[in-house]
TrEMBL record:
Record EC number: 1.11.1.27
Source organism per UniProt: Comamonas denitrificans
Pfam family of the protein (one): Redoxin
GO cellular component: cytoplasm
Record protein name field: Glutathione-dependent peroxiredoxin
Length: 167
């Protein structure tokens, strides 16, 4: 499992873009790591699945609500990562009104989850291999803080906990 001080893996996530700009076309666009992380401070959190109860009712909304506080604490961007496709992440972001606050990044093949060692096997529950629930602070591509949930629920990877750690 990835640890504090480790660099995030060099892989590519996908982001659904609704408005073209900065070289991005409408639709799914690649987000190549570590280039997207270079020189930035990122509050990254991962969820087992878009539109699932805890993710939709508490985890993502907490980061949306605290977006301004994260910016004030020196965070350049907030990223939400899930093992879903870019279309699902885009739709979930629209439903949660994340525009300008949280980037919704798809790890459709679980490449990022596997590379970080932060997977959750929900085979038999109809969900297959997913990402574990966690939050991390990433500075210039390296993990500066890591909060991995141990079991079900949301007790250490919520927005308030990560924000308190970086203030």
């Amino acid at each position: 499992m990835i640890q504090i001080g480790d660099a995030l893996p060099a892989c590519t996530l996908m982001e659904y873009v609704e408005v073209p700009g900065d070289g991005c076309s409408i639709g799914p666009n690649p987000v190549a790591l570590p280039a997207a992380l270079q020189g930035k401070t990122i509050a990254l959190f991962a969820v087992p699945g878009a539109f699932t109860p805890t993710c939709s009712e508490t985890h993502l909304p907490g980061f949306v609500a605290q977006a301004d506080a994260f910016k004030a604490a020196g965070v350049d961007e907030i990223w939400c990562v899930a093992v879903n496709d870019a279309f699902v992440m885009g739709a979930w972001g629209r439903q949660q009104q994340v525009a300008g606050k949280v980037r919704m990044l798809a790890d459709g093949d679980a490449v990022f989850a596997k590379a970080t060692g932060l997977t959750l096997d929900l085979t038999g529950k109809g969900l297959g291999l997913r990402s574990a629930r966690y939050s991390m602070l990433v500075r210039d591509g390296k993990v500066a803080q890591l909060n991995v949930e141990n079991g079900a629920g949301l007790s250490v990877s919520d927005a308030a906990t990560l924000l308190a750690q970086i203030q």
